[in-house]
Amino acid sequence: MGNRFDGKVVLITGAGSGLGQASALQVAKEGAKLSLVDLNSAALEETKGKVLEVTPNAEVLLITANVADEKAVENYVKDTVERYGRIDGFFNNAGIEGKQNLLTEDYDFEDFQKVISINLSGVFYGMKYVLKVMREQGYGSVVNTASVGGIRGVGNQTGYAASKHGVVGLTRNSGIEYGQYGISIKAIAPGAILTPMIEVYLKQIDPVNWKEAADELVQPNPMKRFGKPEEVAYLVSFLLSDQANFINATVIPIDGGQSNKY
User: Fold this and answer.
1) Contact 95, 126 (CB under 8 A)
2) Domain 9-192+230-251 is of which CATH architecture?
3) Which of 1, 52, 63, 173 is the most exposed place for a label (fewest CB within 10 A)?
4) Choice among 76, 107, 129, 160 that is catalytic
5) Residue 13 burial by CB count (10 A; 0-12/13-18/19+): exposed, middle or buried?
6) What positions belong to coiled-coil segments (predicted)?
7) Is the pTM of this model over 0.85?
8) How high is the pLDDT of residue 218?
9) Which of the four pLDDT bands, split at 50, 70 and 90, describes residue 262?
């Protein structure tokens, strides 16, 4: 297992923190060459530093890019291929939480567009350019980050829920299209995972007592706790590997069982 990604290239967006950073650390431990993308260049440097702490010989390419900009996405794919010659795995992960705790009628359209541009258009752009590379290769694996909020209804999360439902649709549709080319495409649907994004979300709900809001948030979860980024990273690593090639056009929850209660 330690050599599962030896010689393989893994491209990760949203790699500066949270699930992207944790997944970069995990696949690097298993031998992957990394191409890491984020809008925050300082966060990328932090991720690279952590990768090199645990895997001193890791090859790491850092690319600062806005995933909502199609040309920037085309360029990060091009830069990755120019550096490594191919893309074996793609964790299409970058996203934002958007405005929370609002009724749909109170949700500003500009805020809605911003969430859609990053969470949905950004995922689409990534798939558009990476899948072309993988089709020409005749193989590859894509993991998109959806959400529990993309497989069931959630209140007061208009932009986020809409964007993540869209990611689920893109995943299923493209998996059907590209399976014939030796490419598997799947999505993960995390529940409440203890990342910087969840803290932003909680502070929107209750800026003062957000830690109490955190306690309340995990109560519907059968396991009564937040998930850890590294727990998601283990799943991502498996899904990107050759061992998961026959898992395609589907969505896999990682939420402690929460989605099964509704």
Assistant:
1) no
2) 3-Layer(aba) Sandwich (3.40)
3) 1
4) 160
5) buried
6) none
7) yes
8) 87
9) low
Q: Dihedrals φ, ψ of 184, to 5°?
A: -110, 135
Pick from 79, 234, 17: which is nearest to 143 by CA? 234
Tell me the three state secondary structure of residue 66: coil
CB atoms within 10 A of CB 126: 26
pLDDT digits (tens, 9 = 90+) for 221-259: 899 999 999 999 999 999 999 999 999 999 999 999 988
Domain ranges across the chain: 9-192+230-251
Contact between residue 179 and residue 247 where contact means Cβ atoms under 8 Å apart: no
Write out the H or E segment, with its range, that includes residue 13: strand 9-13
Q: Is 139 a catalytic residue?
A: no
Across the beta sheet with 140-145, what order do the strands follow?
A: 60-64, 33-38, 9-13, 89-92, 140-145, 183-190, 250-254
Write down the pLDDT at residue 1: 44
